[in-house]
Amino acid sequence: MKKKGLMKKKGMKSNKMASDSPIAVRAKLWLEIDGKPFFGEGRFQLLKGIDKYGSINQAAKAAKIPYRRAWCYLHAMEDRLGIKMLDTRVGGYNGGGTQLSGDAKEFLKKFEEISSYLEEIVEKKFSDFF
Question: Which domains are delineated in the chain?
């Protein structure tokens, strides 16, 4: 199958296209259980926001999702993964707050690692082909 502007011209080196071209390759990673997606970029951003702000509400606003949906995502992740995602403090004199559990932080770290690995592989293959 020929793609306009992507096929190598005779004598063109395979890595020249990747360095001189405005074309970029992207890949999207998500996780599924029994064929049903349960974790991807949106939920990743939600968890990163909770880690950054210490607040589900602020994290939901930053991720541009309703607070109620954020809670649904969090409960679904806990149910599907079988791990506690949050450590919460009830309000009071110093106010409440929410932090990611140790298990959630480890899960995020692993997701970031596999995402980076996938990106590297895709970029390398892209430069090999073009």
Answer: 36-121 (1.10.10.10)
